[in-house]
Every structure is written in C-alpha cells, then in structure tokens.
Amino acid sequence: MNTQILLEGLVSGSMIGLGAIGLTLCYSIMRFANFAHGELIAWGAYFAWLASAALGAVLGLSLEPIEPFSFGWSLIGAAALALPATAALALLVDALLFRRLRRREATIIILVIASFGASIALRSLLEFVFTSKPHYFSGELQIAQPLFGGIRATPDQLLVLGVTTMTMLGVHLLLARSNAGREMRAVSENPALAAIAGIEVARVVRRVWALGGALAAVAGLTAGLLVQIRPYMGLDLLLPLFAAAILGGIGSVPGAFAGGLFIGLCEAVTVQTLGAEWRQAVAFVVLTAVLIVRPGGLFGRAPS
Amino acid sequence: MNGARATTVLETRALGAGYEPDLPIVRDIDFALERGAFVAVLGPNGAGKSTFVKAIAGLLPVREGEVLLNGEPLDAHAPHRMVHRGLAFVPQTENIFATMSIHDNLALCASIIDDRERRATRLEAAYALFPDLARRPSLLAGKLSGGQRQMLATARALLLEPDVLMLDEPSAGLSPKLVEEVLASLERVRASGVSLLLVEQNVRAALALADEAIVLVEGRLRHRGPAAELAEGSLLGALFLGRDPTLAERAERRP
Fold first, then answer.
1. Across the A/B interface, how many CB contacts are shorter than 8 Å?
2. I want to staple B147 with a disulfide (CB 3.0 to 4.6 A). Which of B8, B61, B111, B178 is the partner?
3. Which residue from B80, B83, B94 is facing A201, i.e. has the nearest CB?
C-alpha cells in the first residue's frame, strides 16, 4: 500500500472532521440531526468565493498567490467575511424555521424533516444563483513537495491540516474552559436544569448556531481550496459528516474530529484498493458498523 | 392585614397548572409564603405537590391564575429569570450537571453574578455551607453519592442568595442517615434567612423541621396549619385518605 494515501486521507478527513464538529455541537444542544449542515458548508465556500472576488475587484486586494500557497490575500480577507456571513445564515435559518418549530414544541422527527427541507432550499438557491458550474478560489496549480518517507504534499494541503487542527483545539478549549462553553455543556446535558440555574437557553442556542455556521464556513473554505466549489459539495459531505460525528460520539468535539480523520483515511484506502467508485460507500459502511457495534460512539456519553 | 401582606415573599393566586392544557393537575391554589417561613408541602402520591412547585419555578406552564414574587408577577416563559428575581428551585431528580465537576456546577451558576468579588464570596460561602463539597471540587459531579448530589444541588440553588428556596423531595432515594444529614442542612439554610418551601414524602421529618404545612389532595389545597398540630393527632391521616377534615376532627373529639 502506498503511504501517500495516508496524507490524502488525513487532509480530506480533517475537513470532514471540522464539518462534523459543527454537526455534533448542533445535535447535542438542539437534539436533532441537522441535515442542512452540509449546505451551510457549501454556502460558506460560496460566501468566501464571492467575497474573495469582490475584495479583489473593489479593494484591489491581491488575487496573486502568496508563496507557497495557491491563493492570494483576497481569500484571507474573504475568510474573515465568510465566517460571520455563514454564522448569520445559520441564525437566519433558525429564526425562520427551527425556532418556530421549537416554540410549537415540535417533535424531533419534525425538526429533522424540516432540516431536509432547509437543505433542499439552500442547495437549490445556490444552484439558482451561481449555476451548477464549479468554481475555484484560484487557478494556480500546485506542485506537491516531497516531505518524508516518500510522502508528498502541496503547501495548501499542509495549511488545511494545520488550520483544521488548530480550529478543533480552539473549539475544544472554548467548550472545556470558557464560561460560554460551560453554558453550552450545561444546556446539552439538561436544558431545564440549565434554565433554573439562570442560563438563558435561547441565547446558548443562538451561540451554537453561530459557532456551527462559522465552523461550516471554515470547512467550506478548506473544501473549496482542496477540491472545488459546487452547489452539491455539502450534500456529498453529508454522510461522511454524520458517520464522523456518530463515530466520535455525539457531543464530543475531539471525537468528531478523530471520526473525520478515520473516515478520510478509510476513504483513501478504499479508493486506492477498490477504486474511486467505492468512496461513497465508505461512510455508509462505517456508520452502519458503529450503530450496530457501539451506538454511543468512541467518546460519547453513555446513555443515561 | 397590610402588615402581613408586606412580609409575603411568594404568592400564588388561583394557580392552575399541568402538563396538558385541558388536564390541570393542580387547581385553584391560593397560597402565600411569608418571609423567613419554612413551609412543608405534603400530600398523598399524585396529589400534585411536584406540579405545584414546578409551576412556580416556571418549568411547567401556569394554565390559570398567577404567581407573584415579592409582589411582582413572574413571567412563566422565562425560568432563567427566576434566579435573578430571587427564586431558586432544586428539582427531585437530575438536579446537578453530572458531566461537570463540582466546581463547574457551582461556577456555572455563579457566573451570572457580575461583581467579581461577590462571585468569589458566594462560592466560598457555598463551600462553607457544605464542607463535603470543598474537599474535591474537581471531582465529576456524576460520581457523587446521593446525599452529596443533593448538597451540591442545594449549594447551587443558594449561590445567588435567593429569597425563596423550593426543594422537591430532597430525601427521595436516600438512606435514613443521609436523609437526616440533608434535612439538617436545611436548618442551616433557614438560619440564613431564606424562606423555604419543601415538598416531602417523609412527613414526619418534614413536620419536625417546618413551621407550617400545607396539604394538597387531588390537586387542591385542602389544609394549612402549624406543623406541630399536624404532627400530632389523626388530621393528616384523614386528609391523606381524602376524608373531610372537619368530620375527622369531630370524630376525634367524640368521647
């Protein structure tokens, strides 16, 4: 087996992991599987693409690549805009849809089906506005540089690994150490008790949507950087995201990231050994196996 | 009359509450808790004792009537504002965050205190009231014994120096020795001037602690009187069995 697939698997796995963190956070606080999370990732990528082009055209921020990467300063500025924009989109979807359903004390299945609807609407809107033609942050081709042990990587790939790992650590620290994180954990464990302890649950829910949206934007940026920007990029990621989040254990941030890395590695090995047409099946097989063998996931809380 | 009204800290007027809109579990409850008083809420199983306190705490919708704290109506849709207004509640089960440390459980609640110094003082006071908790603040709350959990839950509720503390069966599921310990801690709470409303199945222990008791039967307030009076005589038994207390009293007085 080729050691190069390890790197490919880790890079795409780190992107899946980042998306899965947002998914697992939403799930543990709102208690429903948000099938529109993939679309938040796609919208994040489009926001960044739009902002990058606009910054290049209006402010004259350079589209020229910053050595050794494939993108220019405009994308860094665009990232700063895409994160809050995607967070705002997540809050908007909640305000228009999920919050109304929560107020009516809708059951979980209604929320899940509603998220399916949101997913279709958000995806179709992308296709309507931007067409299904793929876009790229940069037209630059990157040459993979030799690292060690015969492994080669492009600077972009290494950057993605670094950014996703730092983001995961940041979210983990936020949850473990900060007061906002403590409030999120409290609401995740017992919303009624959190409320009588003086925590405004609605505010925590808003924060989680904003955080989930921002993380989706980072995942979208990395996906756009490594592959391409398409309206269906979120849908294609959906099953791997769920497999990673459930494998890691719902609510566990490091678990979701580790789950993502695992799925990425499995996909890379499968593509190498069985062929690229089997890639889509990997997440499905892993998800099924986890649900049968260890439904709580690797780092999940034991069901009480 | 006016003087008595001024000392009322918590009041319910024609309170009706329940899980379903057309299925009230408690009905038409007029009740007032005076400042510094310790009132036990008694009644047979299913009488609506927990529903009564949960509705006051904002955990269940108030379907009829209203709840007033220090003379101001409480907004039933915002249980998180209750602690700011001076009303603290300790539910019967799941009353601590099991996946967090003892310290995080307390710090979480203390974080809504803006003043840093006061926050530190209140945390110290909580540990002083329950020295057991101070021994290992980093311990996961889920690993605590039943009695310690109850102490942590009570300490959490007292952090913001409430006017009223409501407890829903703090002795449930505890061994007799622990029941004594937990209830003894309530004596200390009461000594600090907090008004207490205690739902308790352990009638004898509750009456030994409280000044007064109210008895709920089938969702209605059937009796209110001094605890000592209820502790003696057969009135309570008659109430629990659903008999008319006036008849029971007459029967008692018969030679």
1. 65
2. B178
3. B80
